[in-house]
Amino acid sequence: xxxxxxxxxxxxQEQGQEGSPSDGASSPEPxxxxxxxxxxxxxxxxxxxxxxxxxxxVSRQPHDIGEGMDKVVFGVAATATIAFVVWGFVxxxxxGRVSKWALGGTISNFGWLFVLSSTLFVVFIVFVAxxxxxxxxxGGDAEExxxxxxxxxxMMFATGMGIGLIFxxxxxxxxxxxxxxxxxxxxxxxxxxSTAMGTALFHWTIYPWAMYALVxxxxxxxxxxxxxxxxxxxxxxxxxxxxxxxxxxxxxxxxLAIVATLFGSAxxxxxxxxxx
Length: 276
Prior knowledge:
It is found in: Cell membrane. The chain has one domain. The chain has helices at about 5, 15, 40-60, 70-90, 90-130, 150-160, 165-180, 190-205, 205-225, 235-240, 240-245, 250-275. The chain contains twelve helices and no strands. The longest helix has about 40 residues, at about 90-130.
């Protein structure tokens, strides 16, 4: 930064004269009469002050690690997760028995709800994509996508499926052929082969993508279109109102979302490790 950037321009006789010297007439060289003078020490002091302000503006200010964090949501989710991990270390066999019992009971009693909900998700997502709502951008009206459609599809396919499709695309039909879902068909039969392929297609085709899209659209539309926070509970603001979401109901939703995300990620890592 030079002195010319800090000192204001001075008034000269040339600026006060009318006309322009470009007409070819010679004129005496003007003299400069400064309006005021600035000492070199003042200039340096101003330079240091401006540089210090620039450094503060571009540097990240220290923040409290708990700033903006809901301590109730974090505390309950962390306590539940740590308790589950400790249970696994202390009594792994007991945890295995309880988990197996809970999984079997859920599949036996709510398997129909899972299949029905997945089908409704597919119908809803297809309707949104084919209707006028599918033309609403997930961002500002004047914004352009950061990546092309092909890049978005590639990234979503890689993150949504990953190596799981390579392993379970072959292993899952064989598994369900040998051990069909409960209360369906006898194993190692022609009907078992059909059931195995249907179950594998249910797990790896349009049904999981409809689930991903339902959550992704809700988060993206609320965040990038409506300017809401990226909390999971923010998706339900239009359904239950801001007062309910900012209260106990929103905290319960966020706690369940955190626990489900942590356990889902752990399950994915565990299944990925088994494929190595």
